[in-house]
Write a structure and sequence with these properties.
The complex is a heterodimer of chains A (99) and B (312). Chain A has 99 residues and is α+β, with helices and mostly antiparallel strands. Chain A contains three helices and three strands; from the N terminus they run ββαβαα. Classes of the chains: A alpha+beta (99), B mainly alpha (312).
Chain lengths: 99, 312
């Protein structure tokens, strides 16, 4: 009915873990949403913490043009720097330079 | 959430959509999807939700007759899990556009289906063991395949459900093992239950379908066909049943090594069709109980100001 809304449920499995999306529940308010979330996502002591967030409060971005642009972004990742041969060359040069 | 088009699935482009799901792509609730795909997922998930909700009724009959407190707690907990699964699945289905009120109304009116195995009566505590062990095992074989569904909210829900179902199977196997280690009368109780449940179990995954014409398969709503699921169930569970000294009531049942498949007596597909359309031995009684229960709990839904609870 009209008074209900969808709440997205996030759960933390252990202290310090990231909050991970678990699913959603239907409830008229946050208090009842948390009760449902506890029943569905915390019945087996599998959750350390639960969040419920109104679905309307979520703003989504899933545009691959912005998130997965087709440019080479390897300079942003550690694996984008291949130093093996350069390191070998530098070490060899340093050895030659030793007095 | 807005409904902006994605390059992989441009709005309204059914061909691109089916190429996406056909190559293992996933669909989220707010993605554009063809109406026929939406309707097919909804029908599949709604039937699954109905089955979870109706499936607790045969077991509910045994809560007060459980042999001890530990069994009573375990059985009650299983029933709570199954109703929880119904709630999770109705939530998935609601996002596809059919309100929960309408799904419950259709179920109570006999317009939508639930699994064949929940249309039969239970006769003994042996049934509780056979249902929790083998009915849940047959169900988990298909549910595990659904973790790969193209409809991502369903696939994610199935991961959680499978995790809980694996506990139910252990509970059922433990009940059966305890009886098998008991008296001759207890062993006979299990054998008699298996004899009655074997037919419905073999029908449960449905008749073999032509994979080329099975849309649910083609669109990867489900990942395996009926016969694959039945073969998988037989491969795992026939040895586990036989090693306990139980007889499977099918003289034809054997593994054919050259073809790599189980041969079995053709299940009674007429019985399956009759049962799932509401003509099973306990169909009307179960629906009537659910209707009474729904009326009894109306005050709870009114008090909550919504339609949420369809509690058992």
């Amino acid at each position: 009915m009209s008074s209900e809304q969808v709440w997205e449920v996030f759960r933390q499995e252990a202290e310090g873990d990231p909050m991970v999306h678990g699913g959603s529940v239907n409830a008229p308010d946050a208090e009842l949403a948390l009760h449902y979330a506890r029943e569905f996502y915390g019945r087996r002591q599998e959750s350390h913490r639960l969040w419920v967030v109104p679905r309307e409060a979520i703003t989504e971005l899933d545009d691959p043009d912005l998130l997965k642009p087709p440019f080479d972004r390897s300079f942003k990742r550690p694996g984008g720097y291949i130093i093996k041969h350069k390191l070998e060359a530098a070490k060899a040069r340093a050895a030659l330079d030793e007095p | 959430m807005d409904q902006q088009a994605r390059p992989t699935q441009p709005s309204g482009d059914a061909e691109a959509f089916y190429a996406h799901v056909g190559s293992g792509g996933k669909v989220e609730a707010d993605d554009w999807m063809p109406d026929e795909y939406r309707a097919a997922v909804l029908k599949f998930v709604e039937m699954h939700a109905n089955s979870e909700l109706m499936g607790v009724l045969p077991e509910r009959d045994w809560i007060l007759r459980a042999p001890n407190l530990k069994r009573k707690l375990a059985l009650t907990s299983k029933i709570q899990d199954e109703v929880g699964h119904a709630q999770l699945l109705y939530r998935v289905a609601e996002d596809l556009g059919k309100p929960r009120d309408a799904m419950l109304a259709d179920l109570l009116a006999g317009k939508t289906k639930f699994h064949n195995v929940f249309h039969y009566p239970t006769r003994s505590w042996g049934d509780v063991g056979i249902i929790a062990w083998l009915v849940d095992a047959a169900a988990i074989v298909s549910q595990q395949a659904l973790r790969d569904s193209s409809y991502a909210p369903y696939a994610r829900t199935m991961k959680k459900i499978c995790w809980e179902e694996s506990v139910h199977i252990m509970h059922g196997r433990d009940v059966v093992l305890t009886l098998m280690n008991g008296t001759d009368a207890q062993r006979a109780l299990v054998q008699e239950a298996l004899d009655r449940w074997w037919g419905p179990l073999m029908q449960m995954h449905g008749p073999p379908t032509d994979p080329a014409r099975d849309k649910d398969l083609h669109w990867r709503i489900k990942a395996k066909n009926n016969e694959q699921l039945r073969q998988e169930f037989l491969s795992i569970y026939v040895p586990r049943i036989r090693e306990l000294g139980l007889r499977i009531p099918d003289p034809v049942l054997r593994y054919d090594a050259p073809s790599g498949r189980w041969e079995y007596t053709e299940p009674d597909w007429d019985e399956l069709r009759a049962v799932v359309t509401g003509h099973g031995p306990a169909s009307q009684q179960r629906l009537e109980f659910r209707r009474l229960n729904f009326a009894d709990t109306q005050w709870v839904r009114d008090a909550l100001g919504g339609s949420a609870a369809a509690a058992a």
